[in-house]
Amino acid sequence: MQASRNLAKTLRSVTLRQGAEDLLEQARRGLSSAGSLKEVLKEKIPAEQERVKALKKEHGRKVLGEVTVEQAIGGMRGIPAMLWETSLLDPEEGIRFRGHTIPELQAKLPAAKEGGEPLPEGLLFLLLTGELPTKEQAQAVTEELRARSALPAHTVALLKSLPKGTHPMTQLTQAVLSLQLDSKFAAAYTAGVHKSKYWEPALEDSLDLIAKLPEIAGIIYRNTYANGDLIEPDAQLDWAANLSHMMGHRSEGALELMRLYQTIHADHEGGNVSAHATHLVGSALSDPYLSFAAGMTGLAGPLHGLANQEVLRWIQMVTREIGEEPSQDQLREYVWATLKGGKVVPGFGHAVLRKTDPRYTCQREFAQKHLPDYPLFKLVSDLYEVVPDVLTQTGKVKNPWPNVDAHSGVLLQYYGITHENFYTVLFGVSRAIGVLSQLVWSRALGLPIERPKSLTVEAIIARAK
């Protein structure tokens, strides 16, 4: 019986791979009238190349900012030294994707249903082209990703072979690296493609990788938490909804949450670890698979992608110590005790933002609509009322308001996604949309290898004097 199942899975993989090119060609034919990603990029890239050349020629020696010794030894925080077109973090309005705020995108991006959450496929179109897609263009991206989504048999076999207990992020990185075998960018570079054409195989690899990530994540989830009982993708579902489906969470609310989650976590400027690592490795002309894998190893760090886990664990600790429905006075005392004990309140504050994170706000609105009576949401709402006031009273916090991580874990818990170690994989799947869109543009604009100047302590002292 097991042999029959294995044969069936192998046949399915072979059939999907054999049909992928046909499906992809069909998708492209359907895209031609709407304006495909590649067609729009081909039209835009020459003008952008000229714009960057002119910028360098006219303003190349102008100073963007000063670098202090504190910044040099403090993680280069805030140094304006990267070109990153896909997003910009505004201290007052939060992240802007190609100039659009989160509320604007919720209103303007196509949704799977009337009044629903935006489709990440629409955001991918926007980040790559700079244009808001029509409903037809977003649907065409869905179809193109679906046509590229079949996993090679060796990737599925690799994931199955990993030792029990392997962290989900390690599994994700291993799977991404296994896909590098088929890198079109690596093959084109070896064949001697002209540098002006680097962006084309980079786009092919990026779309292939983005398309395959939901099934990779679904397999990791089911192998790790459901005894390897895999769920086939649903050809009728969009990219994010299919991810939720393959994890085993098919309620309409879960599908909508996944669309929202994958949209708002897609990008956050280029200086964060996962984005910068992807950019840095890509600047050496490593292909998108190698570059994205580097970004994911950075995302796996406790100071980056694990923040929503830390928030959730803290909230759970609150409920254990003072109950599931504490009063605001009890919460206020608990927060003060936390701070006086030399600890932080996770999920509050931000290095750049000076207001409530719009990503927090849109998740709060989602919860008010779909799960208003959920006890953990009520607790998060009470913390929203209590914590900023306490942090302000300390006089030490520039931004006392909640960020995106203060809310996302609670929403995932409500829909049964309770395995916290997996949350960073969901983050990583989303982050691919932003960092790979920028990688395509980095190759299109001919950005060089990144090579900042480093100094020894003695050299810094000498310059400071």
TrEMBL record:
<dbReference type="InterPro" id="IPR019810">
    <property type="entry name" value="Citrate_synthase_AS"/>
</dbReference>
<feature type="active site">
    <location>
        <position position="350"/>
    </location>
</feature>
<dbReference type="InterPro" id="IPR010109">
    <property type="entry name" value="Citrate_synthase_euk"/>
</dbReference>
<protein>
    <recommendedName>
        <fullName>Citrate synthase</fullName>
    </recommendedName>
</protein>
<dbReference type="Pfam" id="PF00285">
    <property type="entry name" value="Citrate_synt"/>
</dbReference>
<dbReference type="GO" id="GO:0005759">
    <property type="term" value="C:mitochondrial matrix"/>
</dbReference>
<comment type="similarity">
    <text>Belongs to the citrate synthase family.</text>
</comment>
<feature type="active site">
    <location>
        <position position="405"/>
    </location>
</feature>
<dbReference type="GO" id="GO:0006099">
    <property type="term" value="P:tricarboxylic acid cycle"/>
</dbReference>
<dbReference type="InterPro" id="IPR016143">
    <property type="entry name" value="Citrate_synth-like_sm_a-sub"/>
</dbReference>
<feature type="active site">
    <location>
        <position position="304"/>
    </location>
</feature>
<dbReference type="GO" id="GO:0006101">
    <property type="term" value="P:citrate metabolic process"/>
</dbReference>
<dbReference type="InterPro" id="IPR002020">
    <property type="entry name" value="Citrate_synthase"/>
</dbReference>
<dbReference type="InterPro" id="IPR016142">
    <property type="entry name" value="Citrate_synth-like_lrg_a-sub"/>
</dbReference>
<dbReference type="GO" id="GO:0005975">
    <property type="term" value="P:carbohydrate metabolic process"/>
</dbReference>
<dbReference type="InterPro" id="IPR036969">
    <property type="entry name" value="Citrate_synthase_sf"/>
</dbReference>
<keyword id="KW-0808">Transferase</keyword>
<dbReference type="GO" id="GO:0046912">
    <property type="term" value="F:acyltransferase activity, acyl groups converted into alkyl on transfer"/>
</dbReference>
